[in-house]
């Protein structure tokens, strides 16, 4: 039992030179049958038979590719080196993926969201966007989970919102919105509320896996928030040590705290990002 290399060329470069380069993909598999008779070898793998000769004048076939006998060993080493490189790269990517925080909600949060009445969940999102999600409405949103008293329902509902707030806060920081409180204020006060509600609903119904629509809504609300007629923002920025001026379009430009030149509000978002 040995190993056979499968070779598949996908392009040829430098064809105008005496030694063109063949770009190829490789794979390997076990040999199911091997015979050697009078210097001729045959190998059968997955029903495919390849025959080659060991005469000095004949080429060596490796995975269907004719190789000069003197170069065969080097060619096999190249194939094996490529395989090791790909395996090392795949292992590195797997390690990096493990280090990257997952956006998806934790298992217990997903279980509760899956068991909740989806109409109640949608209603709770709309109430939250409109600033009307008080304790009574919060407890009512998880009533479908079967709680017999308000306090138990409220505790579980707060656990759910707490877990969601952690994920929401992470996304807000990555998008340069300082923290979840700033992001929530911008999203609910400086954006189309219907779109904000849909963005939040998509994020929650997808159990946090896809945050693209929520992120886009955050960016739009962030840009809308950065206006000269927003006195709370202007005063807060000045208190943080920024110089603030109104732009010709009614927006603001900033300087200070690492911004050496006057910078638009949208461009300043990059300096607020927390990775």
How would you summarize this macromolecular structure in one to three sentences?
By secondary structure, this protein is α+β, with helices and mostly antiparallel strands. The protein contains ten helices and ten strands.
How is the secondary structure organized here?
Elements: E1 3-13, E2 21-30, E3 33-37, E4 40-45, E5 48-53, E6 60-62, E7 65-67, H1 69-99, H2 107-115, H3 118-129, H4 135-141, H5 150-174, H6 180-189, H7 193-205, H8 212-225, H9 231-239, E8 243-246, E9 252-256, E10 259-264, H10 265-272
Antiparallel strand pairs: 1-2, 3-4, 4-5, 6-7, 8-9, 9-10
Q: Can you describe this structure?
A:
It contains ten helices and ten strands. The protein has helices at 69-99, 107-115, 118-129, 135-141, 150-174, 180-189, 193-205, 212-225, 231-239, 265-272; strands spanning 3-13, 21-30, 33-37, 40-45, 48-53, 60-62, 65-67, 243-246, 252-256, 259-264. The longest helix has 31 residues, at 69-99. It is flat.
């Amino acid at each position: 039992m040995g190993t056979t290399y499968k070779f598949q060329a996908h392009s040829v470069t430098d064809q105008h030179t005496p030694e063109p380069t063949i770009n190829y993909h490789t794979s390997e598999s076990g040999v199911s049958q091997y015979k050697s008779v009078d210097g001729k070898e045959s190998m059968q793998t997955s029903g495919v038979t390849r025959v080659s000769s060991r005469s000095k004048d004949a080429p060596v076939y490796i995975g269907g590719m004719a190789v000069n006998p003197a170069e065969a060993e080097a060619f096999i080493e190249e194939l094996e080196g490529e395989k090791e490189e790909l395996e090392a790269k795949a292992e590195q990517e797997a390690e990096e993926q493990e280090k990257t925080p997952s956006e998806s909600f934790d298992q217990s949060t997903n279980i509760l969201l899956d068991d909740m009445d989806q109409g109640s969940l949608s209603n709770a999102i709309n109430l939250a966007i409109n600033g009307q999600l008080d304790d009574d409405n919060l407890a009512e949103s998880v009533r479908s989970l079967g709680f017999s008293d308000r306090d138990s329902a409220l505790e579980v509902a707060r656990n759910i919102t707490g877990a969601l707030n952690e994920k929401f806060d992470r996304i807000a920081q990555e998008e340069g919105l300082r923290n979840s409180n700033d992001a929530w204020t911008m999203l609910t006060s400086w954006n189309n509320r219907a779109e904000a509600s849909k963005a939040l609903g998509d994020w929650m119904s997808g159990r946090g896996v896809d945050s693209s629509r929520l992120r886009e809504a955050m960016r739009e609300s962030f840009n809308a928030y950065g206006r000269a007629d927003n006195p709370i923002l202007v005063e807060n920025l000045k208190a943080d040590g920024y110089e603030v001026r109104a732009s010709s379009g009614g927006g603001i430009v900033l300087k200070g705290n690492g911004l050496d030149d006057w910078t638009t509000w949208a461009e300043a978002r990059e300096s607020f990002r927390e990775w």
